[in-house]
């Protein structure tokens, strides 16, 4: 269908790049933003690749404790400055915002320095392992929700965002069910350092439960088992929210068939569900079974779009001078829930909040 | 799962950018290629956006008969040179390859000039409306298959490519069925200029039928009807291939539920099918029905990945000095089939090839 | 949910057998009908089992040329009379209706004798191999449509009947696609005796095409191949109907994954499709694929309900003194289409009707 | 495919009624069994209709406290004897087995009388509201498992039975999830009499959890809410089994989209799930959504086959002189779990068993 029209006509009819961002490969935002990325490990690279698709975002600097990684990344993405000391970034007056993608133990200190350097901040979750420290941060910076966005990226996944937008279709919600299972268990080393399944893995689902229920937890119960590691790697969490919604989360460190990410909400007028994404759309019909592809392998593929949408939401909030859509307060609440799960598992009782 | 590891370790463990292109947002190829794009209408913009995600491709120049469009595009993508006369591009010695995205009537002349300027060429389909002209081109340039790739992008769609790769699972193929329906009929002006449904729309499916059957047509029959325009807009094509496979293609200029793109192949040991992609993965369970989302709206979304894979295939063929995977010869064969369909419809008889 | 209510209350609240036939296991009709079944082979047994679930139908006699089979069947179903000569049935004055389930070559003679004995008749398709003979029958008995129902059972399948009832949802139909594939090829002996794929197998689909299109064919084209037998066992049929609808039927004598029965109708306002039934509703998620069950094995299972609904339609027509919903005329039209397919295949040309 | 073969041949080739029960409409068992049904309310009628499809089962007598209902039922099914006093049934020496379908409060007394009259017994669940009474019954009759089968019909549903049979495919099970939601809430009167959601509704799922886990519960937690009635009508149950499996059950008295019945089991080598059955297999593709049919309306339709299979299992156990597949012991265990749920909800704590 590309023949026979003058290019200009065709262009303006079908592909209105000037007006609307219909091109899914390269993204446009109105504001030109100068940014820096701190921490260039896996999640840092994910954010860099996503940021690079925005034409009006200029990545001015990166930093990592590994000089090779910092240098290689700068070259790979044609970024003018690279550092091993992240504090060099805060010296640069012309940087508007920083992406904090370092290990969790650095988050809080870096966030504070960034706030004091007057940068907008995107910080990966968890903000800190200790919810008391998050509480302190909130206490010190009263305008924090306008300055710091925390990376609960699943809120920005197109599927989950569409659920949130259409919740009223099911009337009054009564049951929320969230499934979140990783494809394979992490290394023993990772597990030890991770802070446990609730703070490392369930925290995303606890945030999703708050996001969908639009309420706060009243009762939390967790049961679990150890199947792949010497730490709890399989768990069922039950939450009763203040508005009466009851919620079940199931997490497993292993789902051999891929990254299992589901959500369903029952209401008095119906149900909405989000089903898994498969790798492809083939079905093989054999003598014994109908075979289709396994699920997307892991979060990098499953939540690829969420990283793009998260950046858009970050920029929109700045432009419109409104609160970020996932804040330090959200980080605190999720952290408190994760701690309650841990306590429930250990003490074998219902935790009342 | 991003806490607790040193960034370097994490990076090399999970995100081996150096070795393999697992990052789906930004693409890497080994060769640095300098290219130019001719024709900046809808399809030209699609290719530009796809080309821009390749780090080692340098887009050196663009041209379009509209000076505004050429200038705007160059600015948008930071491309050094822009022209209104495409021949200026062939003067640039340092350009390795050109992307011909102009209207069909310009294709053949531009391809010849590009060949004579010693550029590699990617040309959008159809190569020409007249299959005799394509035949002449093939006769003149004996090494054409190493120099010219024609844009049958669906061959590179991950789903269809996966079918091709797994055909042996179903044994000997006996029936191929292809569905291809546009979401809405084009304007009367477009229809008139398009050369008719077979050369404009079915040609993709005729190429797919050859690609999957790995054979040439022996008999072609087309029946059709006019429902939305004063030209045939709904058609059933039947092909009998030399290897015995029988094939049905159904095309419609209108499918109100989205861009319907399906394929199935029956063999003596099973069946493989490619199902449609939906816009999202939600299901709404109401009192009266279970509702899920409609299909991807059109080719831009449905075949987004195919444009990326097509570029990879173009570059790989150059690197490995092998024939392009979709050639002038393929363009000729598809064009002959489209002409046979038209003849069958008009003359109400089976066309024997 | 069965505790605590008095049985009577509960019964009338939930299980209104008196008023509506909500019980799917045992069926009620208002008329008491005395019937006989002629021919106790496979299809005869299917009808017997279905008839036996109707409480108000009394099966008074059966006949088969095999005395053992006749005797065994009578004992199995507690039927008072059994014969080897079917004509004994027509002597019984108190029999209201006969089910003719004998081999095709007996159909026409038995139908005539039944008509002359003043019985209502249900006759299995095809009515006769020669469409001229069917035409003669129609000419002789002008009220035939009120006396003879022909067993195009798929019209009564709940899925296909639901499609028929909701056709207006898709606006003006433009394309009909029918898939009908048997699970395994028949024996050479069966194939020889069957009258060929069009009269034996496609005839159901040709009737379905007429049923859905509500029009008569104008052009018929068939192409085919021989993969499993020395007769055509794989075919694509294309029909252009007088109302402009174009239709594709694909048939294969072998689909290793089960009995493949699909229908889809595209209209200017949408599409309706009937998907296959699987044996069960399990999915197994393994490391390599998601596996679900194959399709229902064959027509006995897939169309089980259609035999029940067919009987209901037979009785309703008698009660309401209206034409049967599938008549001798339908048998004739389907037979003419099957002959046209055969002629198209042999002569390699489009057949105009 | 019924033409051209002699009926006898055809019959023995395709329809081996003598050897195997491939006919799904009418069922054959080897033993001739004389039975009676006590209680002719909704569930009694369901069992009667299922029993009636077995050729070798003779229903000799029925009883109900309503003389009209007893009389009507006897006439409807041509049953020789009907009573208003169930004890008349136990006087009949030639009755082999009784089906107890009366309200729960009668079950235990009738079971005891039937045992003392030396009948085999099929009794609907729950056996009694008080688990102590069930324990007493078990204590008194040591051979009870060979004499009494309790109607946990879902164990015999072909889908759930297939899951049970293929559990080893997923390795070691780690998580079981059961969803069971009724289409609409019962009347206030029913709710009051039902004994609460756990004993009335969850008891099926508690039995399923035991059936699949092949273990006994160690911890039970229930949370719930009241949305439609003044009793708990929505609940999440969490069970930790002795073998380490963790299990979640979600129940709701209302699912506006139909009778929602799902099961999934995660193991270290994969997952098995049972999905819902829809009313039909149609999809309507409109401009705004893809619509398919809602779920089977209620248990009568969804579990229709289970009642047939349950009867087969009852008979097979008698023939093979083995324990019934769902026993008084199973009834006791499920009842204890239901009580634990109730206690957990009331006392807001984890119940340890």
UniProtKB/TrEMBL annotation, chains A, B, C, D:
Residue span(s) of domain Gfo/Idh/MocA-like oxidoreductase C-terminal:
169-349
- Keywords assigned: Oxidoreductase
Q: Which GO terms describe its molecular function?
A: inositol 2-dehydrogenase (NAD+) activity; nucleotide binding
The reply to whether Transcription figures as a keyword in the UniProt entry is: no
Write down the superkingdom of origin: Bacteria
Gene Ontology CC: one annotated term? cytoplasm
Gfo/Idh/MocA-like oxidoreductase N-terminal domain: which residues? 33-152
**What are the recorded Gene Ontology BP terms?**
NADPH regeneration
Enzyme Commission code = 1.1.1.18
According to the record, the segments passing through the membrane are: none
Q: Which InterPro entries match?
A: Gfo/Idh/MocA-like_OxRdtase_C, Gfo/Idh/MocA-like_OxRdtase_N, Myo_inos_IolG, NAD(P)-bd_dom_sf
Q: What family does this belong to?
A: Belongs to the Gfo/Idh/MocA family.
Q: What is this protein called?
A: Inositol 2-dehydrogenase
